[in-house]
Amino acid sequence: MVAAVERILVICSANRCRSPFAAALLREQLADRNRGTLVASAGFGDAGVPATSATVEVAGTLGLDLTEHRSRAVDPALLVRADLILAMERYHVREVVVQDPDAWDRTFTLKELVRRGEATGARGAGEGLGDWCARVGTGRERGELLGASVTDDVADPTSGGAAEHERTAEELQDLVTRLVGLAWPG
After folding, report:
1. Contact 89, 148 (CB under 8 A)
2. Is the pTM for the entire model greater than 0.90?
3. CB count, 10 Å around CB of 116?
4. Considering the domain boundaries, does residue 10 fall inside one?
5. Domain residues for 34?
6. Is 128 inside a domain boundary?
7. What does the pLDDT read at residue 148?
8. DSSP readout, the chain?
9. For residue 1, is it within any domain?
10. Which residues have a Cβ under 8 Å from the Cβ of 22 and sit 6 or more positions away?
């Protein structure tokens, strides 16, 4: 049975670019589908820092308002409450699992989850998010997430200019759209 409220946590390094942007995209797309899903974001940097100006600007061109966003630090309580944890890099998955070893089955990089979901198949009617994650993660090995990889990591545009932020935004739009189609079809 599908849970009444699902909690998604999106994580990146500082919670100033990728994760707030991806979380906003996810909230927008799930709202359009009338889903009872709560989406939050966090990072491994300091709390209370605004999104970068380039992130706010690129998000604004897409109708997303990140002007009030303030970074939140990952903490064990956030991890325990999340039904799905989406990381921007393999490194983030490793850090999450160090803090909460039980989070392995529900923590993926966004790219990894989309890739595995497309290979495994969309979430079925009545299939819980946790059950779908378990199905998608069948055969997954922790060693697969060692090192960095363009296959699994969304590049961090923080120190780049507008072009890097725009490329990251386009990539995240594509990945989030594909994820929503897989994990919350129809």
Report:
1. yes
2. yes
3. 18
4. yes
5. 6-183
6. yes
7. 87
8. ---SSEEEEEEESSSSSHHHHHHHHHHHHHHHTT--EEEEEEESS-SSPBPPHHHHHHHHHTT---TT-B--B--HHHHHH-SEEEESSHHHHHHHHHH-GGGGGGEEEHHHHHHHHHHH-PPPTT--HHHHHHHHTTT--GGGGSS--TTTPPPP-TTS-HHHHHHHHHHHHHHHHHHHHHHS--
9. no
10. 10, 12, 41, 86, 88, 110, 172, 175, 176
* 70 lies in some domain: yes
C-alpha span between 118 and 136 (Å, rounded): 9
- Count structural domains, the chain: 1
CATH number of the domain enclosing 53: 3.40.50.2300
Beta bridge partners of 108: 86
pLDDT tens, N- to C-terminus, the chain (186 residues): 444 689 999 999 999 999 999 999 999 999 977 668 999 999 999 999 999 999 999 999 999 999 999 999 999 999 999 999 999 999 999 999 999 999 999 999 999 999 999 999 999 999 999 999 999 999 999 888 899 898 999 999 988 888 999 999 999 999 999 999 999 997
Quick one: pLDDT at residue 35? 67
The DSSP bridge partners found for residue 12 are 43
Calpha distance 86→23 (Å, rounded): 9
Q: Alpha-carbon distance 73 to 34, whole Å?
A: 28
